[in-house]
Amino acid sequence: MAAISKSNAKGANESKKTVDSSNENHFCIICNNLLISMEGSTLKLVCVSCGQQYDATAEDTLIYEEVKGVNLMIYSKIIRKIKYDPVSPKAYSKCNKCKHNVVRQARLGDQLKLINACLKCDNVWVAN
């Protein structure tokens, strides 16, 4: 009986060469194996096991945006969370708002500006 279900699944694969990719986990809907990207004229996702192809969506692609200058507002979400990041190093630097002297640091932007975030208050500033 298992051989019959395999042949039915194989027949379904041959009739549909490309299926619209709606699974966000990047696993095949037929055999639940991992999908990998295949480049050609258009980006496709292909099952490593059964070879089923899926159309890639906008979420499946990487978007590179180059920003020139010192505008750190594009990193606002990261900046708000620096003080909660256990990986960011701690340093001694006096906060000009609450005078606390321990901060977390991160480097952001194409010029790798040093950002300090006070651990006591929500003050964030660019170090000199």
Structure explained in plain terms:
With 128 residues, the protein is an alpha+beta fold. The chain folds into two domains: 2-60, no CATH class; 72-126, N-terminal domain of TfIIb, CATH 2.20.25.10. 16% of the residues lie in helices and 26% in strands. It is built from two helices and eight strands. The chain has helices spanning 2-15, 76-81; strands at 18-20, 35-38, 44-47, 53-55, 90-92, 102-108, 113-118, 124-126. It has a four-stranded mixed beta sheet, with no helix packed on it. A four-stranded antiparallel beta sheet has the order 5-6-7-8, with no helix packed on it. The longest helix has 14 residues, at 2-15. The radius of gyration is 24 Å and the shape is elongated. The N and C termini lie far apart (72 Å).
Which helices and strands appear, and what pairs or packs with what?
Elements: H1 2-15, E1 18-20, E2 35-38, E3 44-47, E4 53-55, H2 76-81, E5 90-92, E6 102-108, E7 113-118, E8 124-126
Parallel strand pairs: 1-4
Antiparallel strand pairs: 2-3, 3-4, 5-6, 6-7, 7-8
